[in-house]
């Protein structure tokens, strides 16, 4: 696995985190407890920070990046991902903020300064434009996304179950690696 510093800043994570050998994690990237990073993920915390909350999983081929700080925007656009977030295969998350208990469907794109509140499902292939806010408790689909309908109780429960399933899976991978 390629875990390396940028300008002397190293990724930060503990032994409860699984990072696949093919992933690339660079710079100011903080992974909380029980995070899993799957094959071919690229996370570049080079010109700003990436923070991933507990029990979140970033699936195969996803790109995580940020926007640099500038005189026009002194804070830039960091990437902040909350707890219990499932990011599907081949997603692009760029300088956005995701709350807790979110499912980002396969190949979805979430752009700079978008804010996704808690308890949201973003449909596969959807595009969340820059600066858009997705309100809590809804399914969003399309390119650009549109609010489709409220989430059902079963869908809200699935958001937590998905994260829990990935914690179990990453623990199996860690056990096998340590055997």
UniProtKB/TrEMBL annotation:
<dbReference type="InterPro" id="IPR047324">
    <property type="entry name" value="LbH_gamma_CA-like"/>
</dbReference>
<dbReference type="InterPro" id="IPR011004">
    <property type="entry name" value="Trimer_LpxA-like_sf"/>
</dbReference>
<dbReference type="Pfam" id="PF14602">
    <property type="entry name" value="Hexapep_2"/>
</dbReference>
<dbReference type="InterPro" id="IPR050484">
    <property type="entry name" value="Transf_Hexapept/Carb_Anhydrase"/>
</dbReference>
<protein>
    <submittedName>
        <fullName>Gamma carbonic anhydrase family protein</fullName>
    </submittedName>
</protein>
<dbReference type="InterPro" id="IPR001451">
    <property type="entry name" value="Hexapep"/>
</dbReference>
